[in-house]
Amino acid sequence: MPLTGLVRKDLPLADGNVRKLIEDASFPNQWPTKETHIQHKVLYKNGVSKEYGVHGTAVGVDFDICIADGICITVCPVNVFDRLELPGEQEKMDKGVTNDSGKAPLANWKADPAREQDCIFCRACEIQCPVQAIKITEALDHYAKFVDRRLFSQGSEEGSYVTQGSVAKTPYFLEHSAVWERE
User: Fold this and answer.
1) Where are the domains of the chain?
2) Is 0.85 topped by the overall pTM?
3) Distance in angstroms (rounded) separating the CA atoms of residues 145 and 18
4) Portion of the chain with pLDDT greater than 90, in percent
5) Backbone angles phi, psi at 109, to 5 degrees
6) What separation in angstroms does the CA of 119 have from each of 25, 30, 57, 78, 137?
7) How far is the C-alpha of 38 from the C-alpha of 59, rounded, in Å?
8) Do residues 93 and 119 lie in contact, with contact meaning Cβ atoms separated by under 8 Å?
């Protein structure tokens, strides 16, 4: 059963013509790696990423959307995130420049998934992010513990990632997972 009743009411959700990482079905498999930061990849997709790209794959934080409200840091039960200072953000804040979320950043740092390998895939950060800058995707080897391997025997590559829409509708997964919402 998904978490409910935990959405912050003081920060409006992103709306209008803004970009939301969670809605991008091509992430992370079709996003090229730009560099490596700490223990995670930084992905950058031409025509989508503007300046910073997405830090992490299993816990992807789109720095071009993140407004640095810190809710993800607060709700994470396993301390996946660190604050990564970005000096250029202060000037944007001073000028009131909005980012890809349509909102102005609140601080000169971003929530960096420095310990994404510790993620337990509870999705608290993804659910709470007011601008939907976070997307959780789980590697197929993680799913092997919970889902019959036969579900992935056709066309899946080791190290590829799955998203909610690609697995959540299988009868086994709907029956055995508490984090996926039934439709």
Assistant:
1) 21-136, 139-183
2) no
3) 36
4) 42
5) -135, 170
6) 21, 22, 11, 7, 11
7) 14
8) no
Residues 6+ apart with CB under 8 A from 158: 140, 141
Per-residue pLDDT band for 18 (boundaries 50, 70, 90) equals confident
Q: How far apart are CA 183 and CA 181, in angstroms?
A: 6
Distances (CA, A) of 36 to 40, 115, 117, 121, 143: 6, 13, 14, 22, 24
CATH architecture group of domain 21-136: 2-Layer Sandwich (3.30)
> Quick one: tokens of 70?
């810190």
Q: How far is CA 16 from CA 11, 44, 93, 155, in A?
A: 15, 23, 21, 36
Instruction: Retrieve residue 176's tokens.
Output: 């055995």
Checking if the pLDDT of 151 tops 90, the result is no
- Helix spans in 10-101 (H): 71-75, 88-95
CA distance 81 to 79: 6
How high is the pLDDT of residue 81? 97
